[in-house]
Amino acid sequence: MQTLDERTAEVSAKLAQLRPRMAAHAIEALEIRQTANLAWLTAGVATYINIASETSPVRALITPERAYLLTDSIEAPRLAHEAQVEALGFALVAETWHTRGDLVQRLAGGLRLGQDGEGGGANLAAELQQLRSTLLPSEIARLRANSRLAAEAMHEAIRAVQIGQSEHDAAARLAAETYERGGVPVVVLVASDERIANYRHPLPTDKPIERYAMLVLCFRKDGLVISLTRLVHFGSLPSDLQRKAEACARVDARLILGTQAGRTLSDLFAIARDAYADEGYPEAIDEHHQGGSAGYAAREVIARPDAQTPITVNQMFAWNPSIRGVKSEDSILLTEDGVEILTAMEGFPTLSISIDGQPIARPAILEV
Question: CB neighbours of 315 closer than 8 A, spacing ≥ 6?
Fold first, then answer.
C-alpha cells in the first residue's frame, strides 16, 4: 500500500501536468466531474457512489493556485477522514445536501472556465484522457498490485464453477471474490454453453451451467480498471472448440506482441483483422471490438480503423479477441522492456504460442 506522502507527490505531479494544458487553452479554472478523471487526479480516491455513473457527486475545481474538491455534507466526512483529501493537497469545500448550489461559479469568481465534458467553456476531456492514459511510476506500482488481486479473484471464481449452478451464482462468486480483495466489479459477464457463441456481452442469467462457462471481469481498485476473461469446460474439449481456442489465442498473441511504441491503435486494428483472416475467421473483426488502451476506464480508446491514437510506453492495454464460442483477454502494460502480462495466473493452463519466433503463453480453456 502506498503512503500518504507518495500519493500526495502523485497528486502534485498530476497538477503540474494539468495546469500547462489549461494555460494552452486559456483556461483559468477547470471543473472536473468525470469519475475516471477524479480518480486519476486524486491518486485513486473513490469519489463515486453509483458505480454505474460516469459522473461523481464530487467535483474538482483547479485554478493556477488552488485545487478544490467540492461536495455536500453527505460525502465530505468520508473524503476528509478516510480519503484524507486535504492532506493530498485539496481544499475541501462542502455545502449541506439540501442547499447545494453552484460552488463552481462562486469559487471561480469570473475566471475563464473549462470542464471535462460538454457545457460552457473549453472542453478538456480529450486532454485529460490523454494524461490519464500514460501512467506514472506510482500508478504502475498500484496497477501491478491490483492486477494480481484481479487475477486471484478470477482464479478462485473460475475454479469454483460447477455443473448445475446458474450463471447468476457464478457471477455472484466472481463479484464476491472481487469485493473480498478490495476491488469493485464494474463489469461481470457470465455465459454458459451456447450463450458463449451467441452473445459477445453475455449478462448472467438463471440458466444452469451444463458443460462450458465463460467468466469476464472488469476489476476496479484505486481508480484503475483491470480486465480479464477465463473459460472452463467440463470434460474433454471438442476438436472444433479446441481449434477455435488456439486460433483466438494466436490472434491475441499477435495483438499483444504487436503492441509497440510508435504504432497507433489503428495499426492494432489492422493486426487483428489480418490475424482473423489468416486463421480462417475473417468475419470475427466485425462481430466485436478487439479492445484497446485501458487505465481509469475499462477501455480508454478502442482500436478502430480510424483510431490514430499513438501507443507509448507506460500505457495499459486490454485486448479481447473473440471467435464465436471462445475469447482471450488479459490486461497488459507496455514498458521500456516490452509487454508485461499483468493478469497471468500461476497454475492456470496455458497455450504456448510462437509469433515470428517469439514465444508467449496465452490462457487455455480450463478442463475439469
Answer: 133, 134, 135, 293, 295, 333, 334
